[in-house]
Write a structure and sequence with these properties.
alpha+beta, five-stranded antiparallel beta sheet
Length: about 160
């Protein structure tokens, strides 16, 4: 089972520091990442996704990378109530089975206001107490959801079939 964690910050600079801390936690085997990004919203409301200093361990496999990109895109970039095409609609339905439902996406969108930023983490293994203690210094608002393993696998297979 994977976890998706979104930690929102009022400042892009704090989010970048938190991002670097997550990378260090990965090096220390506190977290096994399958995806990591900083998402920021500028003053005009435009969303920017950055993966500074990508780690080789993150999204090693093509399917894992594609899965991460699709999940991130749907959770962050697709409006919670927006109109989407049939293929994307089917993938969004699969995300709901994984645990990323419209309610969670709505919370993420509410968190990402102009001038704010967030660190988005997708991980297969987290040492919760060590991770929490390390990240506490940055503050922020934490949103977390568990991703059902079977639904995640089916989603990856479906995604690989559409590539």
């Amino acid at each position: 089972m994977s976890e998706m964690i979104v930690i929102g910050y009022d400042s892009h600079s704090v989010a970048k520091k938190a991002f670097k801390a997550v990378q260090e936690l990965q090096k220390d085997s506190v977290v096994d990442l399958t995806g990591l990004a900083v998402v920021s919203v500028d003053q005009d409301g435009e969303t920017h996704v950055d993966t500074p200093g990508k780690s080789e361990k993150v999204a090693k496999a093509a399917t894992a990378g594609a899965l991460w990109a699709m999940v991130l895109g749907i959770v962050i970039l697709t409006p919670a109530m927006g109109v989407v095409g049939a293929a994307a609609g089917g993938l969004i339905g699969k995300l709901s089975q994984m645990g990323i439902d419209e309610k969670f996406r709505g919370k993420v969108h509410a968190l990402l206001q102009p001038g704010s930023a967030a660190v988005v983490i997708m991980a297969t293994n987290i040492t919760d107490d060590t991770f929490g203690t390390a990240m506490q210094q940055f503050g922020g608002t934490v949103l977390k959801t568990s991703l059902a393993e079977q639904a995640e696998k089916e989603f990856a297979e479906q995604l690989a079939g559409t590539s």
